[in-house]
Amino acid sequence: MSKKRIFFIETLLTHGVGHHLDNLIESTLFFKDNHKFDINWLLNENFEKKNLYIPKKVKIYNLFSSKKSSNLRLLFRNFIFFFKYLFIFTKQRKIFYFFNAIIKNYFTVPFFFNLKAYNFFLSQNFTNDDVIIIQSCRPKEVELINFLSFFFNEKPKIILRILYPPKKNGLKNFYYFVDELKKKGFNVKIFTEVETIKKYIMERSDYDIKNFTQIYDFHKRYNNSSFTIGFLGESRVDKGFNKLPDLIRSVLTKIQNINIIIQFSEKIYPETEKYKKEIIELSKFNRGIKIINGYLDYFEYRKLLKEINIMPILYDADKLNFVGSGLFYSCITHEIPIIIPKSASLIKNDLKYKGFLEANTIEEYTDSIYKISKSYEFYLNECKKLSSYYKDKIYSDPLIKEVIN
Predict the structure, then answer these.
(1) Helices in 151-225 by DSSP H: which ranges?
(2) What residues does 292 pair with on adjacent strands?
(3) Which of 71-80, 146-155, 185-194, 321-330 has the lowest mean pLDDT?
(4) DSSP 135-168
């Protein structure tokens, strides 16, 4: 009996920066190790796996281009491609399928469509047992699958894993392509990361939508006498990077013998460059400040999570309430007590145990760090309960059940 096949689509993935590769690795390991599925990654043509951790036996296909063009160049591109593909599909005796696809796409070629991707999808001989997962679902990726589906002999299950709210603008939008796939009889399942995006889509459609649970690995933490706080992720204002210099000064003034780990992201954000310089200056006079420059691979990121035992989450509360946070869930699975913004109501849905405190001002964050450090055993035990709860949630996740069944 052949293995069940999963095809993960990440059209824009070119490197390891951000959570996209991490989430892809975590999902891959879960399905490969627990269910022995055959895993395929369909990625950008510029994806380079050198110096990156890639799970064993994963097949990688560099299929998609993401070159941006002006509207005039796109119009010219569609004109040229139409006649190019007209000749090719006539020669292959697939002109009927091509005309159906191009008409339903309002006489345009999908942004991510090319012959390499087309030939790959046709060569797979999909069955109804196969699963296509659009891992960070974007409307243009649904457009591509809808276009290609005219050439499929069978109907693999299609799972849309949505991280950001899809707008309903123009004729060609997310909802139009989902409806077209459903009309053709495809089993399309839609999952959102957070309740706000689920509500957003349901207000614009009649789709059955469920929230999915991000898959993460777990780490068992032990109590110790030293404390390390941290900031991991992109050096952006919406993630609170601009608050770090004041927090560092405040913490070092109030709490003795505390270590601080700060990641400077590979991407440069002009609005936070001055805060980087402040942190560098502070580190010159404080050995306890450790600065990590650039990208952290799968294992390096988790190694730092194991070193950090109190995590102040300085994100903008509105961002947390709308799109969530990968760092938040990494802290849950690594049993790290956290401090969150007081108005971050969305993530509180998963905080079933008291392994956290809430703060708004720098002074409140500092006081919360101090309070956790003085009662660490209590907060760690609460985090262990929360981690166990989250593990159970993963194994009962509706998206996982859709893939397995």
Answers:
(1) 174-183, 195-202
(2) 263
(3) 71-80
(4) TT--HHHHHHHHHHHTT-SS--EEEEEESSPPP-
CA-based torsion, 35, 40, 46, 49: positive or negative = positive
Q: Which of 97, 121, 173, 104 is nearest to 142 (CA)?
A: 173
Residue 261 DSSP symbol? E
Q: Which of 119-128, 263-272, 322-331 has the lowest mean pLDDT?
A: 322-331
Rounded to two decimals, the pTM is: 0.88
Q: Which residues pair with 358 in a beta bridge?
A: 340
Dihedral of alpha carbons 115, 116, 122, 123, sign: positive
Q: Which neighbouring-strand residues pair with 231? A: 262
DSSP 36-84: --EEEEEEETT---TTS---TT-EEEEEE------HHHHHHHHHHHHHH
Query: Token digits for 202?
Result: 């349901």
Comparing CA positions, the residue from 70, 69, 109, 71 lying closest to residue 89 is 109
Neighbours of 404 (CB within 10 A): 12
Q: In this predicted model, what pLDDT tens digit does every residue of 9-57 receive, in sequence order?
A: 999 999 877 788 999 999 999 999 999 999 999 999 999 988 899 999 9
Reported residue count of the chain is 405
Task: Judge whether 5-211 and 227-392 match in fold.
Answer: yes
Reported for 199-206, long-range contacts at CB under 8 A and 24+ positions apart, including other chains, are 200/165, 201/162, 201/165, 201/166, 204/168, 204/175, 205/175, 205/178
Give residue 362's pLDDT band: very low, low, confident or very high (50, 70, 90). very high
DSSP 7: E
Mean pLDDT, all residues of the chain = 91
CA angle 324/37/26 to nearest 5° reads 25
Q: Which amino acid is at 266?
A: E
Q: Residue 63: what residue type?
A: L
Rounded distance, CA 264 to CA 292, Å? Answer: 6
Could you tell me the CATH superfamily of domain 227-392? Glycogen Phosphorylase B; (3.40.50.2000)
Can you give the pLDDT at residue 121?
Answer: 95
Q: What residues does each domain of the chain span? A: 5-211, 227-392
5-211 CATH: 3.40.50
**Torsion angle, CA of 193/199/202/207, rounded to 10 degrees?**
30
Helix (H) or strand (E) holding 276: helix 273-284
